[in-house]
């Protein structure tokens, strides 16, 4: 199978996914194999929502919209242009996927197959319904993918390299268990935003998307703010308020109530608005319904701190503050070439 054939297959997959990426699901008669797969994928969406309370229809649609947007001929060609892909010896690559947001492991899945390798997938139990079905669609679109995609719930065996994502604890286990294999091991990271006090209301409203999308469960979600000494949070809270219906979600509300009770009993200082709390804290990882913040006085010292802590940080959201920053509202809209942990997985796959 040539690279262009693999690209064409994923473009067709993107067209299939696009049908489900809006609130009103619309069947497109020009999409291949809809007669076999359209109704079945609607059922898989329902199963995913029922199985994981964090996977709301809105958040699943958001994830599908992102992939439908990415899987175009132009985007795939732009992503792959710097690489020399066709002259590789196919290997079997194992992927251990997280399950914190819908289809969170899809980029690894795509990267392995687009580079010409075979893939062995071990999914999280929290996100097990969508990808196997999309993989089956991919095999129908491009029969040469048959035999190159395997899902397993058993112990991984017979692979040549591994990409594994987990918590800090599981990452240490992965590093030990896979020490004899080429690997990419990912652990917990969080994203931060740097405010200067000059942000527009639109900037702050866009930031709310970085904070609340997927209930803050993704590594690209902003969980920590750096604000100038004396910063007043009035405009910030006003910009967050349109997310207030989030408190109607029982799982989110339970976390809000629990964390608020902990802070009150511990007599921690915090600010809250009925659905969201902010607390001054040095840590990067904040609980659900909570955002940590830290004051800074010297921008250069803050840049040095962020550089020193880069192994803990996935994204830095700001406007003209630092190199490689992410625009407000863009953390959950990564391009194909925005690699997790800044590790080029395609380069890794071409070198194994």
Automatic annotation (TrEMBL):
Spell out the InterPro entries in the cross-references.
Answer: Ald_DH/histidinol_DH, CoA_reduct_LuxC
Which top-rank group of organisms is this from? Bacteria
What this protein is called in its record is: Acyl-CoA reductase
Arranged from A to Z, the UniProt key words for this protein are:
NADP
């Amino acid at each position: 199978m040539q690279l262009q054939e693999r690209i064409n297959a994923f473009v067709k997959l993107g067209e299939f996914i696009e049908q489900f990426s809006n609130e009103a699901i619309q069947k497109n008669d020009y999409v291949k194999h809809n007669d076999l797969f359209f109704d079945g994928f609607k059922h898989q969406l329902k199963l995913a929502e029922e199985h994981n309370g964090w996977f709301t229809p809105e958040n699943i649609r958001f994830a599908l919209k992102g992939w439908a947007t990415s899987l175009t001929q132009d985007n795939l060609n732009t992503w792959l242009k710097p690489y020399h892909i066709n002259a590789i010896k196919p290997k079997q690559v194992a992927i251990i996927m997280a399950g914190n947001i819908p289809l969170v492991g899809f980029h690894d899945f795509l990267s392995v197959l687009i580079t010409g390798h075979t893939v062995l997938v071990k999914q999280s139990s929290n996100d097990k319904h969508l990808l196997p079905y999309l993989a089956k669609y991919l095999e129908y679109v491009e029969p040469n993918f048959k035999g190159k995609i395997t899902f397993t719930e058993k112990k991984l065996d017979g692979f040549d390299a591994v990409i594994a994502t987990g918590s800090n604890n599981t990452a240490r286990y992965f590093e030990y268990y896979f020490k004899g294999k080429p690997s990419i091991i990912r652990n917990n990271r969080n994203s931060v935003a740097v405010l200067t006090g000059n942000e527009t209301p639109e900037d702050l409203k866009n930031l709310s998307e970085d904070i609340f999308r997927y209930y803050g469960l993704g590594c690209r979600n902003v969980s920590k703010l750096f604000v100038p000494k004396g910063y007043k949070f009035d405009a910030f809270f006003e910009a967050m308020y349109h997310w207030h219906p989030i408190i109607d979600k029982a799982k989110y509300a339970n976390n809000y109530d629990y964390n608020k009770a902990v802070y009150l009993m511990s007599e921690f200082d915090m600010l809250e608005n009925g659905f969201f709390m902010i607390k001054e804290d040095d840590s990067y990882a904040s609980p659900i319904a909570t955002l940590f913040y830290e004051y800074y006085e010297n921008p250069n010292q803050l840049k040095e701190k962020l550089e020193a802590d880069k192994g803990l940080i996935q994204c830095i959201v700001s406007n003209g503050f630092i190199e490689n920053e992410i625009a407000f509202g863009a953390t959950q809209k990564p391009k194909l070439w925005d690699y997790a942990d800044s590790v080029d997985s395609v380069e890794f796959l071409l070198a194994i």
